[in-house]
Amino acid sequence: MINYTDELRRHNLKATPQRLAISNALHSCGHINIDTLYELMLKKFASISLATIYKNVHLMLENSYIQEVKIPQSKTVYELTKTYHSHLVCTKCGEVEDIKLNMKPILSEVNSNSSFEISKTDVVLSGTCKNCQ
Ligand SMILES: [Zn+2]
Ligand SMILES: [Zn+2]
């Protein structure tokens, strides 16, 4: 288990046992939705409420300790903050994978074909993962 105490403090978050457990869950699962996170947390903290999980997740998001990935037609997942990357989502099992994509060609194409100013470049591509093919 990685010690996330310093990481939490670096994001101005007190390292409570719940937050450390959330950190470890995110680390081992990579991407996790709130319901799965809740299930995992219940195994460690029998009396924890969904509201407490939401509160912690919200605060962690606010302090950029974690980031959310909005999945079309599915639940939002959360991950520990990493450098910019895109996502691949399996439509059969819901598996979410990270992928580094070069956005420069896309942005320059947008630039030459439209006068739109891009502020966010979140990319989620759907398909079938290796296990589900
Ligand atoms: Zn799959
Ligand atoms: Zn990711």
TrEMBL record:
Alphabetical GO biological process terms: negative regulation of DNA-templated transcription; regulation of secondary metabolite biosynthetic process
CDD domains reported for this sequence: Fur_like
InterPro entries per the UniProt record, alphabetical: FUR, Fur_C, WH-like_DNA-bd_sf, WH_DNA-bd_sf
Top-rank lineage group of the source organism: Bacteria
Cofactor: binding details: Binds 1 zinc ion per subunit.
GO molecular-function term, one example from the UniProt record: zinc ion binding
SUPFAM superfamilies, per the entry: Winged helix' DNA-binding domain (SSF46785)
Cofactor: Zn(2+)
One Pfam family this sequence matches: FUR
Positions that bind Zn(2+): C90, C93, C129, C132
Keyword Transcription: yes
Keywords: DNA-binding, Metal-binding, Repressor, Transcription, Transcription regulation, Zinc
Record's keyword annotation contains Protein biosynthesis: no
Entry similarity comment: Belongs to the Fur family.
Record function comment: Acts as a global negative controlling element, employing Fe(2+) as a cofactor to bind the operator of the repressed genes.
Protein name per UniProt: Transcriptional regulator, Fur family
Organism: Sulfurimonas gotlandica (strain DSM 19862 / JCM 16533 / GD1)
